[in-house]
Amino acid sequence: QVQLVESGGGLVQPGGSLRLSCAASGFTFSSYAMKWYRQAPGRERELVARISSFGGGTNYGDSVKGRFTISRDNAKNTVYLQMSSLKPEETAVYYCNLWRERDYWGQGTQVTVSS
Predict the structure, then answer these.
(1) Do 83 and 92 touch, CB atoms closer than 8 A?
(2) Residue 96: which of 12, 3, 1, 30 has the closest Cα?
(3) Is the pLDDT assigned to residue 90 strictly greater than 80?
(4) Is the confidence at residue 64, as pLDDT, over 90?
(5) Rounded Cα–Cα distance for residues 39 and 43 (Å)
(6) CA angle 1, 53, 3 (to 5 degrees)
(7) How far apart are CA 95 and CA 45, in angstroms?
(8) Cα 50 vs. chain centroid, distance in angstroms?
(9) H helices of the chain, where?
(10) Tell me, what DSSP letter sits at residue 76?
């Protein structure tokens, strides 16, 4: 069965950087686009970034362009989100997402941006 396991969250100061990882299993990872979403308290889940199946195409939410980078290693069945210049308002739970006939989600990893 599909499993997505996020890691790498934590507490970081404003302006700092963090790299999230999502380890995938239960499907042919290299055949599917992958996404990162985030959800802050009291807010709707929002799309942060998307990467095509072989990594040749990426898309970002307007608020993170130029600061976040999504990448993948198909040999390791892992997708990454490198985040820099983090802002307090980006405190949220970050989720890895697969769409394959339906949405699949990981358990999320908490990112807290605070001094």
Answers:
(1) no
(2) 3
(3) yes
(4) yes
(5) 6
(6) 20
(7) 9
(8) 8
(9) none
(10) T
What are the beta bridge partners of residue 39? 93
pLDDT at 72 over 90: yes
Strands in the chain per DSSP E: 3-7, 10-12, 18-25, 34-39, 46-51, 58-60, 68-73, 78-83, 92-99, 103-105, 109-113
In angstroms, what CA-CA distances link 77 with 15, 53, 57, 81, 92? Answer: 29, 11, 17, 14, 24
Contact between residue 20 and residue 107 where contact means Cβ atoms under 8 Å apart = no
The model's pLDDT over 17-52, given as tens digits with 9 standing for 90+, comes to: 999 999 999 999 999 999 999 999 999 999 999 999
**Structure token pair of residue 59:** 């898309």
Radius of gyration, alpha carbons of the chain: 13
Cross-strand bridge partners of residue 71: 80
